[in-house]
Design brief:
- This protein is mainly α.
- Helix content is 69%, strand content 5%.
- The strands form two sheets. It has a two-stranded antiparallel ribbon. Strands 3-4 form a two-stranded antiparallel ribbon.
- It is elongated, with a radius of gyration of 24 Å.
């Protein structure tokens, strides 16, 4: 893809799509937090946000970013030749794989419920339904992995900038307070709606309980998409295992010499992956994303067999 005469790399697309999704989550959490001040104010802000994200440009931006980010995440997992990595990288990947399991239910219960059954995405309906069904714990759990994954992604992308280092404490406070305030607001709304729900007239006028057939349809779509995501992730990891098995059976290996040690790795591995795969210490600030220039590799033999350096190299 080219923009303004410049070819966008996978790294550019991953960062841009991730920032869109991070802004989406941050906006939702910020609107949730407004309920600590006033539920009416939060409902008004939610309605304004829904108008944008449900519009044609907003939908294209969000779902396009989600499709790009998820596709690149799975491609990144497929490309990794070893899953040995620093703990922070492992946590980020684990969160990235797990987040769709939570977000699918949220998206089906809000966007699909509105488009297919005209169930309005308002706090009175959604929060009351979650609270009445004892699903508030799962909804609160949704805050943690999505926000943490986004914060880690932003940190890895911008941590080398001087202004980020100077603002580190302020950024940490922001990352801590936003989900905390949103969670407190969610609990506050749930308790308030539970009190109001003692009046059947309020439930009929505001909670908009869905018929059993509608609830079954929403649950069916949610379960189908969750199963599809699990199968897709399992296929990627199974494919990695099968590729490794084929490479071991065919004996296609490259020798890499370290001081006092030689290792054999399959073709296609990066030197960093070879080091991590064999437990050899290898300093890498960026984690193998070709951003920090701390790796220095000397090819002492076989240079004529090396491919032409790609853009990152």
């Amino acid at each position: 893809m080219r923009i303004a005469g410049r070819t966008l790399s996978r790294r550019d697309l991953r960062l841009a799509s991730g920032l869109v999704l991070y802004a989406y989550i941050a906006a939702h959490l910020g609107v949730h937090a407004l309920a600590l001040w006033s539920i009416d104010v939060a409902e008004t802000a939610l309605a304004a946000m829904v108008r944008w994200w449900h519009s044609a440009p907003g939908s294209a931006l969000f779902y396009g970013a989600a499709a790009v980010h998820v596709s690149l995440a799975l491609w990144s997992v497929w490309q990794r030749r070893t899953l040995r990595m620093p703990p922070a990288d492992f946590v980020r990947i684990l969160l990235g794989v797990g987040i769709p399991l939570l977000l699918i239910g949220h998206a089906i219960g809000t966007r699909y419920a509105w488009e297919a059954h005209r169930l309005a995405p308002v706090y009175t309906r959604i929060v009351h339904a979650l609270w009445a069904s004892d699903s508030e714990g799962r909804q609160l759990a949704l805050l943690v992995p999505g926000w943490l994954h986004g914060c880690l992604g932003v940190w890895f992308a911008f941590r080398h900038h001087a202004w980020v280092e100077r603002a580190k404490l302020a950024l940490f406070a922001f990352a801590l307070l936003v989900p905390l305030l949103a969670g407190l607001a969610f609990v506050d709304m749930g308790r308030e709606f539970a009190r109001l729900a003692l009046d059947p007239a309020w439930v009929a006028a505001n909670a908009m309980p869905a018929p059993a057939a509608v609830r079954q349809d929403i649950a069916r779509w949610r379960d189908t998409l969750v199963l599809a995501w699990v199968v897709l992730v399992a296929a990627v990891f199974t494919g990695r295992w099968f590729r490794q098995w084929v490479e071991q059976r065919t004996g296609r290996a490259i020798a890499i010499d370290y001081p006092g040690r030689r290792v054999q790795v399959p073709r296609g591995w990066s030197v960093l992956e070879a080091s991590r795969g064999h437990g050899i210490a290898h300093a890498s600030v960026c984690g193998g994303r070709a951003r920090c220039s701390t790796c220095r590799i000397r090819v002492t033999a076989g240079l004529d067999h090396c491919a032409v350096p790609d853009e990152d190299e």
